[in-house]
Structure formats: structure tokens, C-alpha cells
Amino acid sequence: MLHLVNKSPFERRALESCLRFAVKGSAILLYEDAVLAAVEGTAFTEVAREMAGKYKVYAVGPDIKARGYDTEKVVPGITVVDYGGFVDVVAENGPVQSWT
Question: Is the pTM of this model over 0.70?
Fold first, then answer.
């Protein structure tokens, strides 16, 4: 299953809800404000490291850059994708659950 998360983990509990239901081996794609959870040096760094150890985690690079962060600062184990990669991840992983 692919879990799509687009809300900031600092403002909403969408990522927290996703992680309660995701099973080992699931894919999680972070986009829009949810990419903040993938960046090193935040309150979510440990959560991101745990996610990367259990799930296939992707973060949209242009969304990271649009929020003022460098994609080099993404937690190891999280794959940075562009918009084409976003489409590929959705096409390769199904069914899809969107968390808002």
C-alpha cells in the first residue's frame, strides 16, 4: 500500500495517523508541507529515521526546495523524487491511502 501525506507534521497529525496504520514494507510518499518531516535537524528527525528503517519513504524534492531546504539535508534512507518520480511511485505502489 502507498500512503500519501501532504500536511505538515508540525500542524496536523496526518503523518502520525499514517504511521499507526502502515505495515512494514509499505511505501510512504511525503509531499507539499509533509516533506518537512524528512529534513534532518527537526523535531521529526528520529521519526523519519524510524520510518526509513521500516518503510519505503519518498519525499518530493521540489517541495523540499520550495520550503527553503536543501535536498542534501534529507534523512538517509528517504528517497528524494521529482514530480515524475511522484507519478512513478503512485503507479508502482497501490492501493493508495491519502492522509489529510
Answer: yes
